[in-house]
Amino acid sequence: MRMTAWFLAAGVLCSPLAIAKDGAAILHDSCASCHNLTGPAPQTLKELWARKAPDLFYAGNKYRQEWLVGWLQKPQRIRPAGQFYGDHIKRGEKQDEVDTATLKDHAALSGDDATAVAAALMQLKPKSDLIAKENIPPGKIPEYMGEMVFDKFLGCMACHRYEPDEGGLSGPELYTAAQRLQREYIASYIRSPQAWDPKVWMPNKHVSDANIQKLVYFFEALGGEQHDAK
Amino acid sequence: MPNKIWVALLPLALASLPALGKESAADNYKTYCVQCHGIDGNGKGINIRDMSVQPRDHTDGKAMSARSDDTLFKVIKEGGPSIDKSVLMPPWGDTFSDEEIKDMVQHLRTLCKCKPAA
Mind listing the pLDDT tens digit for each residue in A101-117? Predict the structure, then answer.
């Protein structure tokens, strides 16, 4: 009886650690060659151009864990023109085009590995100070109002898609942003992209607190449509 | 004595610090401007299809010579609305230093092969 209790206690204590260890090992062995797991973000353009995939060293401040688990098993393209768009464009007949032949698909993980990797990624939280500064109260916005802010007032659609075939291509699509990202991260990143990624090609538009809130609500309204990233 | 030399050299070392991290205008253009203004600077970037206002063609000498260097500096730093133009042109003041923006204005002059009209 005492032995059984010991085993049960050991099981409860060890299981999460075992998962975290496996996830960290997978990250180290299979992900670190493309993803930066330790920081810092690129400080020069040369470093920016050399980046092969999104930085993951602050993944725990950025992603929603349940989304990570699903996406890692069935990855779909989030950045229509790849990590750095400049590496994946060519001259076209009417305008520059994305050179899709140069884009690579992300590897898919098994369910167990995806769960372990997601758990390990969620441990990476070096930017919690930035997240703590954000406070988005519960709220909603009609989608057309959000689109007005996103498109007409702030011009975000120049670089971001808000529907699978509407908007620009050099930034990540945002019609799955609310499923993918923590709302405080969305707010903080809009407030200052450079605080997260000093050389990124997204400018700081000095968006007001009110409009940051509206954008978060807009992405949540878009998320209700359950688009699949393509 | 050696300490005094270091103290004397310190202002020189500090004065050179702002130059660290400065990027060339060509590299900045390739990274930040090409997404809308195009590989060739002709306003035909990958993002333009759904834009309500099309980006400026930087190779258009006539249109570009109508803008003063100060106006170009202002629109790069503060964005389109600062000169009554489109919100689709964002402010780059948090991305570029003033020195980099000045270099960018000169880079635009090489793209348009033009000078500001007197």
Answer: 999 999 999 999 999 99
Structural domain containing residue B76: 23-112
Chain A residues with CB inside 8 Å of B47's CB? 158-159, 168-170
Compute the nearest-CA separation of B5 from chain A (Å). Answer: 31
* Contact residues, chain A, for B87 at CB < 8 Å: 152-155
User: What kind and span of H or E run contains A166?
Assistant: strand A166-167
Q: How many domains does chain B have?
A: 1
Per the CB < 8 Å rule, is B44 touching A96?
A: yes
Quote ipTM for the complex. 0.88
Q: Rounded CA gap, B28 and A24, in Å?
A: 36
Out of B47, B86, B89, closest to residue A170 by CB:
B47
The Cα–Cα gap between A138 and B96 comes to 35
How many CB atoms within 10 Å of residue A3? 7
State the pTM of this model. 0.88
Using CA atoms in the order A33, A36, A40, A45, what is the torsion angle rounded to 10 degrees? 70
Q: Tell me, what DSSP letter sits at residue A197? A: -
CB contact under 8 A, B30 and A86: yes
pLDDT, tens digit, 9 for 90 and up, residues A173-223: 999 999 999 999 999 999 999 999 999 999 999 999 999 999 999 999 998
